Amino acid sequence: MGTDVEDSGMIPPFPRSAVEALESDGYIVLKGAAITGPILILADDELIPDVLGQITARWECRRREHVPASNPQVANPPIERSPQWKALASQREIIGVTYYHLGTRVVNWNWEYDAGGRGNATGKMNAVKAAGGGLIICNSWLARRLPIPSGEADLYLINFRRRDILGG
């Protein structure tokens, strides 16, 4: 499930296999791809339009959130997915995504997603380990938790959706 992509230091071209994994499996992990800086800068990260640009140029940022390490939700995050997950899952193409920016390279992260994939949540969670300094990108239909850091670290998340679909 999913795909790990090493950061080569060169953004284009983004591997088509990673986009296909995001479409079919619901997530990809980009190792070492996160930039550092405030959330406003993160939304302008070159990697974001590059990955999404493989699909279409019609994306808009819908939500930017800074989740501080002190937030109690970080220790025990609930399972979340888009309220429109059924409509999103019925489409083969990617319509909405969430980026989890895994901050500093000195903290590792544990992330879980529901094994039900595009279907109803099963309650059976699959675990993914990711290094700090990476990005987890997941399809909006995927039921998942916030990534949990192994130490004290802030998390940034950014939601994008296509402007040409879902009333954009």
Helix content: 10-25%
Question: Superfamily at the CATH H level?
Answer: q2cbj1_9rhob like domain
Q: What is the chain-wise order of helices and strands?
A: EHEHHEHEEEEEE
Give the structural class: alpha+beta
What portion of the residues fall into strands of 2 or more residues? 25-35%
Give the C-level CATH assignment. Mainly Beta
Tally the structural domains. Answer: 1
**SS field, number of helical segments:** 4
CATH topology: Jelly Rolls
The neighbouring-strand order within the major sheet is: 1-2-7-4-9-3
Described by strand count, sense and barrel closure, the largest sheet is: 6 strands, mixed
The shape is globular
What is the mean pLDDT?
79
Give the secondary structure arrangement, pairings included.
Blueprint: E1 4-6, H1 16-24, E2 27-31, H2 39-42, H3 47-53, E3 59-67, H4 85-89, E4 96-101, E5 109-114, E6 125-130, E7 135-139, E8 148-149, E9 155-162
Parallel strand pairs: 1-2
Antiparallel strand pairs: 2-7, 3-9, 4-7, 4-9, 5-6, 5-8
